[in-house]
Amino acid sequence: MTDKNLTIGSTVALPKPELDLLMVDLRKDGFQTVGPHLQDESIVYKKIDGLKDLPRGILSEQKPASYRMIQTGKDRYFDFIPGGQSWKQFLFPPRHTLFTAVRGSKWQLNENDEPAPRYALIGVRACELAAIHIQDRVFLREDFSDPIYRQRREELFILAVNCLHPNATCFCASMNTGPRHRADFDLCLTELDDVFLVEVGSELGRSLLSARTFDLPSAFIQNNANQALERAAGSMVRSMDTSDLPSLLTGNLEAERWTDVGKRCLSCANCTQVCPTCFCWDATDQVDLLGKTTRRERVWDSCFNPIYSYVVGGNTRPNIRSRYRQWLTHKLGAWKDQFGVLGCVGCGRCITWCPAGIDITEEVAAIRAEVKP
Amino acid sequence: MTTTVINTASHSAGYTNKLLVPHWAEIVKIIQEAAGVSTFQLRFTDPEIQNRYRFEPGQFNMLYIPGYGEAAISMSSDFESADGLLVHTIRHIGNVSKAASRLNVGDVVGIRGPFGTSWPLEAIEGMDVVIACGGIGLPPLRGAIYRIIHNREKYGKVTLLYGARTPADLMYPTEYEAWKKADIDMQVTVDRGDETWTGRVGVVPMWFYHFRVDPHKTSVLTCGPEIMMRFVIYEALARRIPSNHIYVSLERNMKCGQGACGHCQQGPYFICKDGPVFPFSALENIFNVEEY
Amino acid sequence: MAPEEDIQSALQKVPWFNSLKTEHFKKTSELAHLRHAKAGEIFFREGDKQDFVYIVLDGRVALDIFVPHHGKVRFYTAEPHDVFGWSSVTPSVRQRTAGAVAVLDSTVICFDAEKLRQFAEDDHDFGYLLMRRLTNVVASRLMVTRLQLIDMFAGPAEYKND
Question: Which residue in A364, B37, B118, C116 has the most C-beta neighbors within 10 A?
Fold first, then answer.
């Protein structure tokens, strides 16, 4: 049955194969559909065409320094929790050419005028959407707006997915970012065994969905979905108490715990790479051998890189302790002064992908215990 | 922590706003200062940009040398000088600044800016001013010195304390006479001198012992090695000058100049955007934290 | 003006002396005399026997040490109201460890160090005040020396790299 009476807020029961057709429509509209894909024993985000590219029947299990996938054999596509990549790579590309300069009698500058791709993100989790909102505050400001981010953000299509199986490293509930989506998506799905329950969040979502074949969801289906969502929210084992942040960290810069974590941290920068809100970058010049053409690129950077804080005369953060302290007191401290909110969405990636298994929820609790015994 | 940060700069004039795309400027003159330090006088190749470019003393530009990268260099221009050239004094010790030492008159560099906050010269009108700087800390204050000279009647007693390692390291020595003639009490000191040096030998912070300040109407502007600034601040506070009347210029690894890339952060501040000039009252919680 | 009045009015220009009680002031002025030095005049050389302790009233006196291959390195200049040659008042140092030369035409007050030491011995009240004053002089000199030692203007190549 097709019902054309969709509005923003409507919820329908969409047969799973219809999602393929929806993605075809998106591509016809000029979007590049990108989403989760099973690769290298993990989940990466890349160009996908349809259901066949999604991680079918995969459930994930995460612990500090561990990400494992389990085959369930079911016809389900979104049971996993995302891996070590986030959507920031699309809005804030890891490498981006800014311009090339060619030496002649003067320098000739050629700006990178390539039009930005229009991305349709398939399968955005609530924590990830919260992270995009945080990065909006970083990249789109009154005093400075990043044109690369802005071009990609303006046309972004978001197909959100509610998490039903939070993993052990997730703590979005305590950060008030999930696991359930609230707003700012184009479409939002909750997966059941036979159908996707799809909520309309925007006019674009509505018009795309109205071209599909779907049913009105029965009360049974709605109940199932709600129960699954509630179970999910209740199943989170990790949490972060943010009631005394940022001052707990910014007011205790000489706590012993920093020295302790400084000994365990390898300064490998994994956490900043997988973190969906980290935004530091560098600009490098790639010169050809003759020195005639130089290409200036913006690349991701990390406060854990040893030369990140290099100034003439030395390094203002010369050891791992000071760099780890910078990262955490920024993410859960100074970030709030700068952007109005804390920089953490509780996705848990930094815990899972840290080779030393450092858990920021544990570190914060330890500092709290040290200074307020 | 809520703090008020002074930002008296006008960002919009002459400012390139595409991500990292510079305007080109030609080197008009190069002056050899001390060993390893030279002053570049620049003019934008586009006359329209040259005409509308404005800056406030204390701000900086990002200087781009294709193939090498960018370096943050303070503006040292006397803005009211007739030629309107951009004056940048560069110490040649990093990758980019060393490449700059190989440039000649007529070569072209990229400029982005101006960025950052400026010395609060309007806010301190009517007060006595102590400018305490050392080494390469004088260039960021040169524009402020000229601004004060051009508006001398607006300020009370103006003292300039300047220190360098040796007499050969002094910046702009040919200008001191003119500054003194403009009723600025200039005291120069070096860390060590030879038999021909008839000036002072000592350190800038010591100079607070040699003259009296009225803490109710004195402002301090300081720029130089962080150790020197720390002791200047200490001496100023010891004489009861309020911390919001002591202004410092901080230095961190600047890359974008726009508070976007993250490198120059210290505590909650992006030094390139919330600074580099700060009232010390904004820094009290973070200034002396080691390795922060 | 008689030399005695000369020295007294000179001493009165220096805040510390002005704050002494009358009998201490009088006794101190008896062991002091004024000296006018032209630029280039030497007060003492390294290795000289200690004789006077000095206060600059006007002008500038440089302290220097001879360093082979570098000549005489000036490491401090005494400005008006600065004390130099103070080690002659301390118990153990007996030889000048630096030289002192007038850099500009200068007027200095010279105190007979031996007699000053004796006065401090005989009158412990005065001795305490003198030593307290000298401690301040040494402390501030030490701070200056430390900052010079840190060599805060040195380029990064000269720092140890880690």
Answer: B118
- Residue B79 carries which side chain, given as an amino acid letter? F
Global ipTM: 0.91
Check pLDDT > 80 for residue B6: no
Give residue-wise pLDDT tens across range A218-273: 999 999 999 999 999 999 999 999 999 999 999 999 999 999 999 999 999 999 99
Tell which of C55, C74, C142, C149 to mutate to test the B interface (max B CBs under 10 Å): C74
pLDDT score at C2? 54
The position carrying tokens 């923003």 is: A8
Q: Kindly report the CATH number assigned to the domain that includes residue C123.
A: 2.60.120.10
Q: Which residues of chain A have pLDDT under 50?
A: 1
**Residue B266 neighbours by CB under 8 Å, 6+ apart:** A316, B250, B252, B286, B292
- In three-state form (DSSP H/G/I as H, E/B as E, the rest C), the secondary structure along B197-251 is CCCEECCHHHHHHCCCCCCCCEEEEEECCHHHHHHHHHHHHHCCCCHHHEEEECC
DSSP A358: -
Going from N- to C-terminal start, the domains of chain B cover: 23-115, 128-249
pTM summary value: 0.91
Q: Is C150 on the interface with B (CB under 8 A)?
A: yes
Pick A28 or C47 by higher pLDDT.
Answer: A28
Identify the CA nearest to A371 among candidates A263, A250, A246, A248. Answer: A248
Write out A163-209 in H/E/C secondary structure: CCCCCCCCCCCCCCCCCCCCCCCCEEEEECCCEEEEEECCHHHHHHH
| CATH among 3.10.300.10, 2.40.30.10, 2.60.40.3710, 3.40.630.30 for B23-115 | 2.40.30.10
| Mutate: best of C147, C150, C158, C162, partner B, most B CBs <10 A | C147
Architecture of domain B128-249: 3-Layer(aba) Sandwich (3.40)
d(CA B282, CA B185): 29
Q: What's the token pair of residue A282?
A: 């560098």
